[in-house]
Amino acid sequence: MSDVIPAPVQARVPVRGGGTFPVRRIYCVGRNFADHAREMGATAPASKAERGTPTFFSKPADAIVTGDADVRYPRSTQDLHHEVELVVALGRDARAGVLPEEVASSLVFGYGVGLDLTRRDLQAAAKKAGLPWDTAKGFDQSAPISELVPAAEVDGLDARTLSLEVNGALRQQAPLTDMIWNVPEILHELSKLYALKAGDLVFMGTPSGVAALQTGDRYLARLEGVVELQGGIVA
Fold first, then answer.
1. N or C: which end of the chain has fewer CB within 10 A?
2. Which residue ranges in the chain fall short of pLDDT 70?
3. pTM for the complete prediction?
């Protein structure tokens, strides 16, 4: 049966060394750094036993911005914020059922660094009214992302630092060891809710220091020793 409209172009992320990664879904983790949870007015767990369950939300696959392209300042906001994040790309489907933590890393194709851009004023209004965050998080061009680096080329994540500079000034910086839930734990928790498949991206949460971006700002995000993302905000 033929399509009645032209098929949309599938979102794809460049891969270091060649090729592209077709994106199926984008999952995001909220409040995965204790210092960021506190700066957003939430209570951070004092121990692993007190973590509870992660907070998840989604962005549309076509929200990605690749190739260090500039991002248009979005409509309907006066308070656009940056949130720098580790991005995990899945290259294999999880088996049916809950994914065990001990095998979760085998699904990972590669890593990148990205920005979870947020319309903070819309998020604050939604929180106050007890409504979902969709309009604050899942808008056009809300997920700038670097190229993906195959996992085999990354010698561990524990020693890596995540950082973001805006106009040459450091805004955010934290070691990945500060994450409340690590990559296998997050994939395990996600698998309780969704069937994880090749093509999924997971934005792993942001450290403290989130702040506003203005038209004309330039940003540089780094996953230390692995990959960088740069770009700017345009009218």
1. N
2. 40-42, 46-49
3. 0.96
